[in-house]
Each structure stands twice: as C-alpha cells, then as structure tokens.
C-alpha cells in the first residue's frame, strides 16, 4: 500500500467512524506501522486547510476526528436543523466547569463547591455526552466519579484540558461561582465555536447580557 492509498484508507475510516479515534487503532485496521498512519493524518490535516475544503481534522489529545469548518456552520446548521437543540444553561455550565477543573470528582464534591443540589445538571451533562462516569473514588461509600469527555473538548475547541484558562486560587473550596463561570466563558469566547454532532459552529453574537446571558443564549447542540 503506497502513501496515497494509506491516506485514502485513513480518510475513509475517519469518515465512517465519526467519533474520535486513535492512530493506533487506525494502524491496526490497515495493518501498518503507526508512524505511517500518523504521517497520513498530518498530510490530511494539511490538505483540509485549503480553501476548497469544507472539512478539518481535529486532534483531541491522542485521538483524531473529522469535522466541518466553522465558516460553513450556517449551511450545516440549516440542513441539520440544530435549532431544536436544548441549550446548556448557567447551572449546567457551572457544574461542567467544576468537573473540568477538578476531575475526577464526585457529585458530593460538585454540590459542596456550588452550594446547591446538582443532580439534574449532572444528569443533563451525562445525557449530552459532555461528561462520563470515571469509576469509583477511594472514599467512604465509594462514590461514583465524573470526568469530561472528548465531546467536551470539541464543544469548547480544546485540544486537551491543558488548554483551559488557569484558575489561580490554590484551594478549589474557595473558588466562587463567579470565578468558575468566568473561566469557562473566557474559553468559549476565545475559541469561537461549538459542535453539533461533528460540526463546528461559531458562537452567538453578544447582546451585553453578561456571562449568564451569554451561556444561556449560546446553547450546546450534541
């Protein structure tokens, strides 16, 4: 199999898979060295940067995913009719941020930081695929812990959790809800897109409503 064929095979697998996949699994599928597949991935990513391509190749930690470019978001949004999606509100965004900065965490931890019951927010985030169960913590009662997913990274335009804006307070127990909300709002505003299925959408225009208004207006479509 020559390099063009490897590149074509990798592209076909990325398209068919839809979800993020590691280069090791792609290499196993084509029965070739992982370095050959990684070279093909880089070549594809370069090719998709051209103006005549509506696709882009996302690199999420150690995995890759095919997605559409932000400039074609309106067209894709109309064909998918993603306007029916339920928006991610401030309470859910706050819960998501606590998890993102401190994962893996239990529901009790989330509720102690937020000061309110978070069962509904956690359930909603699980349903949207933004978080997942991460096993049980070595604490009394062995509580279930939660962590963010690759979908979370895609939604906020992050390659890894290292791209999250820093929170300088030394103790999470003293981080206020305002600080938590502003941190994740900064990320979404800076990155400028979110994802519906595997489509990247630009954020809604600001109307001066502040952080809570921006989060409620922006919405998340999974």
Overall shape: it is globular
Order of helices and strands: HEHHEEHHEHHEEHHEEH
Q: Termini separation (Å)?
A: 37 Å
Number of continuous helical runs: 10
Question: Radius of gyration over alpha carbons?
Answer: 19 Å
Q: Which percent bin holds the helix content?
A: 40-55%
Query: What strand order characterises the main sheet?
Result: 1-3-2
Work out the number of β strands: 8
The percent range for strand residues is: 5-15%
Average pLDDT over all residues: 75
* Largest beta-sheet details: 3 strands, antiparallel
Structural class: alpha+beta
Q: Uncertain runs with pLDDT below 50, 5 residues or more? A: 170-222
Description:
- This protein has helices spanning 3-17, 23-30, 34-48, 73-80, 90-102, 107-114, 119-128, 150-155, 177-191, 210-218, and strands at 21-22, 55-60, 63-68, 105-106, 131-136, 144-148, 194-196, 199-201.
- By secondary structure, the chain is α+β, with helices and mostly antiparallel strands.
- The protein starts with a helix and ends with a helix.
Write the layout of secondary structure elements.
Blueprint: H1 3-17, E1 21-22, H2 23-30, H3 34-48, E2 55-60, E3 63-68, H4 73-80, H5 90-102, E4 105-106, H6 107-114, H7 119-128, E5 131-136, E6 144-148, H8 150-155, H9 177-191, E7 194-196, E8 199-201, H10 210-218
Antiparallel strand pairs: 1-3, 2-3, 4-6, 5-6, 7-8
Give a brief rundown of this model:
The chain is an alpha+beta fold. Helices cover 48% and strands 15% of the residues.
């Amino acid at each position: 199999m020559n390099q063009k064929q490897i590149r074509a095979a990798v592209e076909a697998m990325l398209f068919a898979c839809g979800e993020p996949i590691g280069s090791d699994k792609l290499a196993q599928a084509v029965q070739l060295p992982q370095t050959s597949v990684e070279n093909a991935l880089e070549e594809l990513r370069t090719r998709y940067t051209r103006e005549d391509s509506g696709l882009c190749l996302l690199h999420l930690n150690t995995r890759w995913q095919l997605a559409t470019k932000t400039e074609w978001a309106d067209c894709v949004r109309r064909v998918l009719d993603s306007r029916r999606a339920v928006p991610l509100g401030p309470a859910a965004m706050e819960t998501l941020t606590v998890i993102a900065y401190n994962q893996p965490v239990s529901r009790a931890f989330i509720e102690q930081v937020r000061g309110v019951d978070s069962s509904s927010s956690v359930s909603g985030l699980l349903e949207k695929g933004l978080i997942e169960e991460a096993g049980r913590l070595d604490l009394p009662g062995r509580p279930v812990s939660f962590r963010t997913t690759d979908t979370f990274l895609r939604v906020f335009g992050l390659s890894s959790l290292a791209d999250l804006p820093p929170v300088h307070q030394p103790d999470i127990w003293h981080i206020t809800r305002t600080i938590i909300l502003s941190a994740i709002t900064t990320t979404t505003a800076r990155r400028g897109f979110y994802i519906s299925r595997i489509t990247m959408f630009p954020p809604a225009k600001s109307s001066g409503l502040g952080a809570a208004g921006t989060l409620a207006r922006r919405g998340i479509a999974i």
